[in-house]
Amino acid sequence: MRAEGEILPARRRWLLPAVALASALAAVAAYLAPLHGHRAIAVPLTAARSPTVAASPSDSIAASAPPQASAPAPGAVPGAPLVVRYGFEDSVPEASAAYEVRAAAGGAVRTEKHGGGLAVRFPPPCAHYGDPACPRVVLETSFAANPGTAPLRFGAAVRLAANETSDGENVLQKGFSHGHSQFKLQIDGVGGQPSCVLVGTTSQQIHVVTAGVSVADGQWHTIECARAGASLAVLVDGAVAGRANVPVELSIVNDDPLRIGGKGTSANNDQFHGALDDIFVSIGCGVSC
Fold first, then answer.
1. How far apart, in whole angstroms, are the C-alpha atoms of residue 204 and residue 7?
2. DSSP letter at 208?
3. Which regions of 176-230 does DSSP assign to beta strands (E)?
4. Which residue among 43, 129, 144, 148 is least enclosed by CB atoms within 10 Å?
5. Is the dihedral of CA 110, 112, 118, 124 positive or negative?
6. Strands 258-260 vs 170-175: parallel, antiparallel or unpaired
7. What is the 3-state secondary structure (H, E, C) of 50-86?
8. Largest CA distance in the chain
9. Residue 153 gets which letter from DSSP?
10. Domains of the chain, start order
11. Contact, 170 vs 272, CB < 8 A?
């Protein structure tokens, strides 16, 4: 039996943007270039949206199959930022790519109210990190655009209680630290301090900046990572809470999807345990945008 508010693993959805067709097509066309053999998705475009009804906490998110498109060329500098967003209610007219819910050991995400809409809540922590019996679930998206060396900004609204922290909690990530490249936003450790991670294609060196403040207080906070040139900053509620230097030539290009709430469904998946909303990735827009 499906629990109230549970989003089943096989369901998908996307939200349509509120931008006009002509201008949006021009902006995305200036940025997108073919990447051979790579399945990706661009922001779907339309001039108008059909009327929709906001989901209630007991509704599962509607399913839909995403269109296909090519990803941005590695390291390309766009004429306008390419932005993908993930809200969790159809009443918000914003651009988004599709996602799938992937779960193990009975893991599931459920909707909860946030402001005038909905957020998703992930499973609670287990007594022991990495326990194979611990419920696990991630949202795996079809958005696979690569920032290369371009300015990059990504983040989310988070709600995490002091008793929901663990050794590792990933908010969102694309790629892995070993092998190719990565960008990641996480909240690790009992202190509940957000941190941003970048790894380039030519080196396995992990570049991390950690916020000097905690967000594990049971309240909603916005947390963001912003990379522009040699600067990587972590922002909490709109204010810079930490900054580090990174190589200007650091390039992030990989074939992985964007994952939300964990790095996969393995036992040590760095499961997020609170609630998330308003997830976004912006390529071509750094600290000042």
1. 36
2. E
3. 182-188, 193-199, 207-210, 220-228
4. 129
5. negative
6. antiparallel
7. CCCCCCCCCCCCCCCCCCCECCECCCCCCCCCEEEEE
8. 53
9. E
10. 6-283 (2.60.120.200)
11. yes
| The pair of three-digit structure tokens given for residue 18, joined into one six-digit string | 């509120």
| Six token digits for residue 289 | 């945008």
State how far the alpha carbon of 219 is from the alpha carbons of 86, 159, 166, 275, in Å: 20, 5, 17, 10
Amino acid at 135: P
The tens-digit pLDDT sequence of the chain (289 residues) is: 444 455 444 333 333 333 333 333 333 333 333 322 222 222 221 222 222 222 223 233 322 223 222 344 344 444 567 889 998 875 433 445 578 999 999 999 999 999 989 999 999 999 988 899 999 999 999 888 999 999 999 999 999 999 999 999 999 999 998 868 999 999 989 999 999 999 999 998 999 999 999 999 999 999 999 999 999 999 999 999 999 999 999 999 999 999 999 999 999 999 999 999 999 999 997 555 5
pTM of the model as a whole = 0.74
| CA pair distance 157, 275, nearest whole angstrom | 8
Side chain identity, residue 154: F
Q: Phi and psi (nearest 5°) for 195?
A: -145, 155
The CA distance from 200 to 246, in Å, is: 10
State which amino acid sits at residue 181.
S
CA distance 16 to 175: 26
Residue at token pair 């916005």 = 222
